[in-house]
Write a sequence for this structure.
């Protein structure tokens, strides 16, 4: 089962990656930039597996680059339990 098959699994996976990045000393801006790059890849290359991912893709596709970066930051904020 892929982490993308279930939105809760995806959020847990993303949370783990954010925690790892923070432990490695990455600042929030770097983490957000990485999240943007991942979001851009997923939107272009991966078919949404559930309703939540489909909504995120639709929001991503309807947004300009600045808005996409904001969406990526919001996703990081959503899973970062330290905030």
């Amino acid at each position: 089962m892929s982490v993308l098959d279930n939105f809760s699994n995806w959020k847990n996976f993303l949370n783990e990656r954010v925690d790892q990045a923070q432990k490695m000393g990455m600042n929030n801006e770097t983490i957000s930039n990485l999240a943007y790059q991942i979001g851009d890849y997923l939107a272009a290359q991966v078919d949404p597996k559930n309703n939540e991912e489909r909504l995120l893709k639709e929001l991503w596709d309807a947004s300009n680059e600045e808005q996409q970066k904001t969406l990526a930051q919001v996703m990081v904020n959503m899973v970062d339990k330290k905030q």
